[in-house]
Amino acid sequence: MALVACALGPAAQVWAQQAPAELALQPSPRLRETFPPEVRGDLPTFVEGGNVSGRTGLETVIEGDAVLRRGDTIIRGDRLEYHQPEDLARARGNVRINKAGNTYEGPLLEMKVDAFQGFFDQPRYRFLRNGAYGQADRVDFIDNDRSVVRNATYTTCQREPESGWSPAWILTAERLNLDNESETGVAYNAALRFFGVPILPIPVLSFPLTDKRKSGFLPPTIGVDSVSGAEVTVPYYWNIAPNRDATFSPTVMSKRGLDLGGQFRYLENSYSGQLDANYLPDDQLRDRDRWSYHLRHDQAGVAGVPGLGLNLNLNRVSDDNYWRDFTSRTTTAGSLTERLLASDGVLSWGAGRFSMTARALKWQTLQDPQALIVPPYDRLPQLVGRYTRQELPGGFAAYAETDYTHFRSDRVLNNQPNAQRAYTLAQLSRPWQAPGWFVIPKLQLHATQYEFDAPLLANGRTSADRSVPTASLDGGLVFERDTALLGRNLIQTLEPRAFYVYTPFREQNFLPNYDSAYNDFNFATIYTENAFGGNDRIADNNLLTLGVSTRFLAQETGAELARFGIAQRLRFKDQRVVLPGTPPVTERLSDVLLGASLNWDPRWAFDSTVQYNPKTSRSIRSTIGARYNPGNYRVVSAAYRLQRGFSEQVDIGWQWPINDLWGDRGRDLGPGRGQGGGRWYSVGRVNVSLRERRVVDTIIGVEYDACCWIGRVLLERLQYSPNSSNKRILFQIEFIGFTRLGTNALGTLRDNIPRYQFLREQVDPPSRFTNYD
């Protein structure tokens, strides 16, 4: 019969009795992961063991399977003494502490329970958050969050049963300072050994206990680039404040020199942003200074004005060759190695039905003498006002938009003058909608006025204006029926739709084109009034669009399992308004637009859009994509894109266990945990131009998961001109729960392989009750 003692509060009475078998700790629906410091002193203390003796309010002695519990702390031992006035516990023989899931085992413990201050001789320890463990000569507990471990070892490699086993990697240190509040560790006189070989001896080493941010040097990255040579980066992370941080990333390039890179991030209640910058003084390959910067800033409530917002997206590089020399340089907003870089600033305001924006947009065009780009127009400035009202008397809805833009660019390359353009759109509609049908008649008026800074070549005019009305009628029906297919109960819809638009011809072909282009021909644009995007061309139309779609929905969930659609335009007269250099549209029947998507099985996904020409019996444009994803770490995606006469490409990406080839399917441990040790994974993405019969971009690699470490090797080839490419070798070793060494191979895989999954990623932090005594 076990003896039980319980002390309620630090000065409460201690009682002892022979406990009946049914007296035990009961589960609570309100178990807490953590206890705030202000309530710890009021938590009850429970003790139990084979024999309990002591004096009320002074000391308690438990012998034989002794246990002391308070909050998230449990102490076990052969003998345990608890002195209540000092809140001091002494334990000897097979001592074990469980502190919120972190465990320590050894022969001798002395500790103040509430303050968690004391020492543990010759402990073995294991940490819940990352599964790391080790042993030491002594652990000194400073408080609930901090401890100092003397002559310590640290690894996440779990012990194997075979004799002579030793961990694949282990960190040894004269002293380890562990801080669970900041979730970081600092090792002094440390050495990291990999299969017994010291690979990272260092006097002081700071490392994360979790993924929480901390100041300090990050693991160095090493890579080989066919243009820049060997590259070594030693980043330093500065955790300035909870809402600000910076990373300094100096990189030594064997063929270029020292590149000074950095990133600064900030987050406030009303604004946030990020600045990325690089400076390479005296590039040895280009014999000049190289630099780049990207700034992203988003703010709401500027100067305390409600509804006023500011958005900045600024990008600049030093020279025209930057995009080909630094092909891997990207920011969170996109790539700094594209040939068109936008610097865009928008000041916006909205209140109720009104909104206004003021914008300044300037482009940097990185020119290649062998492939010149016609630069887009800067907008310095652009002012836009909008008014929307959905509930006018009689069920009418109104919309108005006015736009003033000053367009500036290179006159020689664009072969037209710069201009100031004022544009106004007024729209009135009367929607009728009900379950199963809708009808929406709409009237529009487009009015535009131009002032040019040089006479037009067509007629010598320095100004022009244009007014174009448009009328449209949109209507559709929605039918539903219950059905069954392939053993599933479904709801099938049938949704015919008709859209008629009439816009009379107004001569516009003599006008310069600053921002108009043909809309992409798809199911979103085929039911719109204007064939052009932008405001320099308003298509003259007398056409009817007819289409029908059908959807299959799961009766239980309403999820869309399949969709099929078809649409075509019937033109009653030629479209005479065109873009420069293109002929009038004379075909009475447009190409047929076909679309299909399938999600019948969660493992498979299929989506396609085809623009088909009935006269030639050929597709003009096709986009077909498919994905097979039968489980974690198994995904293959493929896409086929055709634009007849211009390009034809196939894009394939994958992540797949190589062990499947010899029947080793591994274990489904869930996302972020891999599929077991000793497994190889193939990863990659290949883009092939069928028109040119060559591989454009390639990333191919392997990952090896050894449970406590992961190795990665990638080969990357990026094409930046018909005859030139950049090649890199990326290799990385990830010591699970400790650090990564090598290049940022994970970032390359995440950015390039659709649905790539990290082999190790903490999805949810473990509960202390998963390791509860």
From TrEMBL:
Name of the protein in question: LPS-assembly protein LptD
N-terminal signal peptide: none
Species in which this protein is naturally found: Ramlibacter tataouinensis (strain ATCC BAA-407 / DSM 14655 / LMG 21543 / TTB310)
Similarity comment: family membership: Belongs to the LptD family.
Record-level GO cellular component terms: cell outer membrane; transporter complex
Name of the encoding gene: lptD
Keywords associated with the record: Cell outer membrane, Membrane, Signal
InterPro entries, per database record: LipoPS_assembly_LptD, LptD, LptD_C
Xref: Pfam families: LptD
Stretches assigned to the LptD C-terminal domain: 289-662
Keyword hit for NADP: no
Subunit architecture: Component of the lipopolysaccharide transport and assembly complex. Interacts with LptE and LptA.
Compartmental location: Cell outer membrane
